[in-house]
Design a protein that fits this description.
alpha/beta; 5-stranded mixed sheet; 9 helices; about 40% helix; rod-shaped
């Protein structure tokens, strides 16, 4: 028998004062209600109620069991109401993972605006350039750069991510400006440790229109400064130490201010898609669906340089 139903019937018998009334509440026969009570007593090995032809009363064990049943059933109702609330309106915590640069410069401001709109939602944002398994790590959503590889996830493209090559004017004044990727072998490059040391910088070969859309080749950079964080490489470039290849969104303000100068523009890597990934779920909670819709709308129509 359903143990929770048996507990509900037991509580109803106590509160309504009769087996018949409890049976009517649960739309069953009095004989079936009595079977539930006997099933509980058999499971517990205790008599819960003293029964006479006129009335029934709780035993000491029955009184203690009744108190615990009330608490358990109330907790279950509260849990169900909480789950229902999550389904009806955006609330709860969203766990999101993103690459460091996009997450810091583009996604974080969008999250702040989303949270202003939906005050019952909280966000935990984990920034890492190491790709983790979305489901195994229990994230609700991930932002990935490049073409999605996991077809089991829903993918929503929200923009493009452009890498650019820059150097400080002081560096170029001292060392000259490279004209082709092959010239990088004679320069100090600021390298990103998450990229493969075997392939190095994957650059266009100049056939495109300046956005890397032509053929691409790998150029292992000459590097004395290697870091796992784009901000660190940016600071080294600003200090005039070398040439940096990093996302445009990280370097754009320095370029506008003249602190960094774009170089090798015809050879920049091809822009890659920025994609939201999340598990397929026909009953996705509003906190996820509203966030996805918000972010898609936020980045829709923006220029394709991330």
């Amino acid at each position: 028998m359903d143990r929770l139903l048996s507990m509900e019937i037991f509580v109803a018998v106590v509160e309504l004062g009769s087996l018949t009334a409890a049976a009517a509440r649960h739309e069953m026969s009095a004989a079936m209600a009595a079977k539930h009570i006997k099933g509980l007593e058999a499971r517990l090995g205790l008599r819960l109620m003293n029964r006479t032809t006129r009335r029934q009363s709780l035993t000491e064990a029955g009184q203690a069991y009744y108190t615990r049943c009330k608490t358990i059933l109330a907790d279950i109702r509260e849990a169900e109401q909480g789950a229902e609330a999550l389904r009806v309106a955006p609330r709860g915590t969203l766990r999101i993972t993103s690459t460091v640069s996009f997450g810091s410069f583009a996604l974080a401001p969008a999250i702040a605006d989303y949270l202003d709109r939906y005050p019952d939602v909280s966000v935990e944002l984990a920034l890492s350039d190491v790709v983790e398994d979305l489901v195994a790590s229990r994230y609700d959503l991930a932002v990935r750069i490049g073409e999605p590889r996991d077809s089991s996830l829903v993918a929503r493209r929200i923009g493009s991510y452009q890498m650019i090559i820059c150097a400080a004017p002081t560096y170029l004044a001292r060392h000259g400006t490279p004209e082709t990727p092959a010239d990088l072998a004679r320069h100090q490059c600021l390298d990103f440790s998450h990229w493969s040391r075997r392939t190095g910088w994957r650059l266009g070969e100049g056939e495109g229109d300046g956005d890397g859309e032509g053929a691409q080749a790998d150029y292992p950079p000459a590097s004395r400064f290697i870091a796992n964080n784009g901000q660190a490489l940016r600071q080294a470039a600003l200090a005039g130490f070398g040439i940096v290849l990093q996302p445009e969104l990280l370097l754009a303000e320095d370029v506008r201010a003249g602190r960094l100068a774009p170089i090798l523009r015809p050879y920049w890597p091809a822009a890659r898609p920025v994609t939201l990934l999340y598990p397929k779920d026909r009953q996705a909670l509003p906190k996820l669906t509203t966030f996805v819709d918000f972010v898609v709308a936020r980045f829709a129509g923006k220029a394709g340089r991330g």
